[in-house]
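Hi R.,

Here are the chain sequences for the assembly we discussed:
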Amino acid sequence: MLERLNQEDLCKQFCADVKLHRRTDDKVMLETPFTFPDGDQYALYLEETRTGGIRLSDGGTTLIQLSYENDTDKLFEGARSTLFEQIIGEQGIQFDDNSGQFFVETNVQDLSKAAFQLGQAMTRVHDLTFLNRSRVASTFYDDLKEHLCDLLPRENVKQNFLVPGLPNADHYPVDFCFEGKAGVPVFLFGIPNRDKARLATICLQYFLQNQVDFDSVLVFQNQEEIPRGDLSRLSNVGGEQISSLNAEDDFRRKILKKAA
Amino acid sequence: MNFDALTDKDIAELINLEKKVKNPGSRWSENRGNRQRNYNVSGGDFLFSLYLRQNTYDEQHFSCGLIVIKPDGQKLTLLRYNGANHPHGEIKYACHIHKASERAIRERKKPEWYAEETDLYHTLEGALFQMCKDANISGLANLKADEPDLFS
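And here is the predicted structure of the full complex:
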């Protein structure tokens, strides 16, 4: 198969998916197969530079695309900002903070290389949305479950547990429940952020008000990120605390100490 | 409604639900080449977000979208009315409407992955008029349909 593959055919295949589109308003677009996750193809704009070269840019479309479901200002803060700068450096492109455009200045001979550079950068910038709080929280629960099931038989770990006989129990689900010593159930809450700390506080208070017999464990994604007031209220109603999933020895010791 | 496995019927129900903009006085803001305006919308037991985006570099790059806020706080785009600045599959540089579908969800794509070409609007203002009409949204004054585009 591979011996039948030749450079010319390969080039034709690549070229078939790349086209120029000249608009009536004189803008020139480069059509490529690159797409955003919603199926929209990348809008790539070609312009002549004053020095006779070519400027290939996204026209600011990447940030607008991200802004539909995200706060794009967060790309320019903290850890995301570091990754953002890293992408720009590694892909050899530039970013204009005023226009929000990613671009490459190149020449006709190197245009295809520039298109790959810019396309890859746009994809990587878009993928920074994987760092969204809700998505990170979701992977935190997956990791928490794996850690728990490494220590306890999987069939003994009940996820999204509803306390039997409790009024409106479906409003107060427990992340994980397993059997504790002396037959008392252990309710384990994962706390990836402040919102969840507050929700766990409400749930635990409700269980106490309704005289539910239980023990509890709170596992934080990063306890240091929970504001003091929220942490204090949660500590008043919750039991054993584990500061993060990285505290593996603590996690093992505290879970095994509680489990039947 | 099970937001993890929305059916086309659920999606149609969400789109057709009577809705009202809660903050019609929301202002435009401009940041990094993007003029944007966001409205909070309520309907039935659900919260929605209606957004407008206009690229300042390319007039043809605009979007008007309707998002439903899922019970877990995540956002799901039900509709997005796009301008003509980019292709979408077989749709080549023409205005198109993205709509969430059971098919896209089943295929593990973004819910609004599928889109259809339209000539019902050619500006952001026209897209907003059309979306409010199609998604039963009230509360915004001075909505205006686009005149037919005689040059396309």
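Residues 124-134 of chain B form the longest helix (11 residues). Chain B is about 15% helix and 35% strand.

Let me know if anything looks off.

Best,
T.
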